């Protein structure tokens, strides 16, 4: 069975998906402010590795590290939902088949408790 990472073109393709995803997030009235004063080049690099890992690629992030990186951000459930909506939209726009998109979204949802820290 081919990993989704390989099926959708590896790091170069995943990087394009992540860049498009962050364009949407930066434009979002709901969550765009999370990225004020953020080194976007560095963030996109890390996020590309994270998404690659979720899709079965060669990178990995521990749950502990994921929680640590997001703890200070006070991300709410509704902000997380907006992020998921934008990611799903981006995956659709980049040709992900619906089952593959759903698998990626389930992997993100499984990490909700590690990312959401605000009531």
What can you see in these coordinates?
α5 (77-93) packs antiparallel against α6 (98-109). The mean pLDDT is 93. This protein has helices spanning 4-7, 10-27, 40-54, 63-70, 77-93, 98-109, 112-115. The chain is globular. Helices cover 66% and strands 0% of the residues. It has one domain (4-115): Orthogonal Bundle (Globin-like). It has 119 residues and is mainly alpha-helical.
Helices and strands, in order, run as HHHHHHH
Ranges where pLDDT stays below 50 over 5 or more residues in a row are none
Total DSSP helices: 7
CATH superfamily: Globins
Radius of gyration: 14 Å
Note the overall shape: globular
Amount of beta strand? under 5%
Q: Count the E strands.
A: 0
Mean pLDDT: 93
Key attributes of the depicted protein:
mainly alpha; globular; 66% helix; Globin-like; 119 residues
């Amino acid at each position: 069975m081919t990993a989704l990472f390989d099926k959708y073109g590896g790091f170069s393709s995943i990087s394009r998906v992540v860049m498009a995803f962050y364009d949407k997030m930066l434009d979002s009235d709901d969550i765009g402010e999370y990225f004020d004063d953020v080194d976007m080049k560095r963030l996109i690099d890390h996020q590309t590795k994270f998404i690659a890992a979720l899709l079965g690629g060669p990178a990995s992030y521990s749950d502990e590290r994921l929680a640590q990186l997001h703890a200070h951000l006070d991300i709410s459930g509704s902000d997380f939902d907006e992020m998921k909506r934008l990611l799903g939209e981006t995956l659709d726009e980049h040709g992900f088949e619906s089952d593959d998109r759903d698998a990626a979204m389930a992997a993100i949802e499984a990490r909700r408790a590690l990312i959401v820290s605000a009531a």
